Amino acid sequence: MEGSSVLEIALSSETPHRDVDFINKLCDIYLISNLERKNDAATKTINFIDEQLVNVSKSLSASEDNLTDFRRRNQIIDVGSLSNELMSKATAYDNELNQVRLKETYLDYLSKYIKTNLDEGAIVAPTNLGLNEPMLMSLVEQINQLILKRGELTEKNMFYGKYTQDINNVKQAINEVVRNMQTSNHIQKKDLDRRLGEVQKEIQQLPEKELEMIGIERNYRMNDSYYTMFLQKRAEAQILKASNTPDNNILDRARTTTVTNSGDKSKTTITFLILGLLLPAAFVVLKELLNNTIHSNKDVERYCSFPLIGMVRHTSSESPYVVANNPRSSFTEMFRIIRTRIEFLARRKTDITIMVTSSESGDGKTYFSINLACIYSMASPRTLLIDMDIRKPSLYSRLGCQNTVGVSNYLANQCTLDEIITRPPDAGFDFITAGTVPPNAGELIRSDNLIAMIRELRKKYEFIIVDTSPIGIVADAYSFASLSDINLFVIRSGKTNKNFVKNLSAQLKADNISHFYSILNDVQVETNSYSQYYSKRYAYGSSKQYGYSYGYGYGYGYTASGRKKKKDESDTYFQYYQDDEKEI
């Protein structure tokens, strides 16, 4: 459990009873392993003492036999007071020497163990052998704790290396303390040997029998004291080992909590996986089936029989003269592309008559016709826009003109050609309105007067753009299609019906109406894909160096020296489509 010292173990399988037994056994083994690590030092202490007891026991048994045999042979029960005093001194010195030898033995064991057997577990504590050296006791306790912590980790654990480094540091400190204690022991041992030698000289002055008795009894007492001390220390280590308990507890034994049908679970997973794949696919297919309007050039190529020669992006401007007001915009550039392709299809650059129609009302053909006239007026002032939609005229209101006389009046012989030609305010082209809405619009469009009118207008103008009625609703555009050089079929993105376009274009193709091409209007595109197309800079300075730079895409470029230019360096380049900065 996160944030606590409680570990939760859970298994999920087809054999819950086996998992319960496994988890319970795992916890038991973990506790046993923890207890064994804690008992490791006590166990090693007991083993060390047992090894020493084997040798001491042999020496004690031999000295006891010698003392008994000597008394029996010489019939001596006790020695005199002087002899007792000397023997007591000698025994005391012998005990001190035994402590020094024990300390030497432990220090040798500690030094050797640190060098060779450190990976085998904990070190025997000096207090277990009656060695009360505070510094050494603290260091041994530290290294035992570090060994215990490292033993619970694997070599891949992030703390394993830290504990190893700490162990090495403590080892160095222990080695230093051991060397100092060995030096101190050597001095103490020499002093005890000297004092014991003085007592032995006094003992040598005793009678022979008494002297021999003292030597035998002294050896016995020394071995007996040594043996008793080891027995006491082993008992203490065994008590410590028996009193140890694990550091961890089992709060709750393993049990089966829930039972799930694994077969149903697998089937449910597969079912939801399939649903997760099918539902998005079904949504996409359903959306495509319900979407019956054209959106992209791929839709035009699929549903329309007429070649696509251009696209016009969406604008939010209410002005009809978007091209004229924004000559350096991507919107205007789209019309330039259409103009260039029309010239290529007509195989000439002047004397071109273009009819603009659509499948139904609202496709944007009138808006397109005005801006197409604007782009041609930039090339030649001899450009004419005709509103041939005499059933439902609308061009005059957008251009701010009066619709008193127009095409219908001229075809009905009510006025001359010059009387219906006008120049809209702020426009660079001439304009002929539709005129009065006649009761017989179809017959007027099919009259010879229309042919004569177009013939006369071709003599005066290089470019004539004719906005006709929707060809999918009325037949007026059919009559005029043969009089024009290029017929443009406007399709509005997100509005024009796919099936309507498909059936209408197929019918026109079957009727052998030639020179028909499609235009995709009101396309939602990113301005940045057309703007900031090209930049150029000329720099002059005192060194008279000439440099230039170029770029494309989103306003980034590279100078002639290879240095990358950032977009905010507006003083070093200008946008090719500058008018895209406006809201059009």
UniProtKB/TrEMBL annotation:
Entry GO MF terms: ATP binding; non-membrane spanning protein tyrosine kinase activity
EC number per UniProt: 2.7.10.2
Residue intervals of the AAA domain: 354-471
Keyword Cytoplasm: no
Family of this protein: Belongs to the CpsD/CapB family.
Record bears the keyword Transferase: yes
Protein name, per record: non-specific protein-tyrosine kinase
UniProt keyword annotations, A-Z: ATP-binding, Kinase, Nucleotide-binding, Transferase, Tyrosine-protein kinase
GO CC entries: plasma membrane
Catalytic activity annotation: L-tyrosyl-[protein] + ATP = O-phospho-L-tyrosyl-[protein] + ADP + H(+)
Pfam families named among the record's database cross-references: AAA_31 (PF13614)
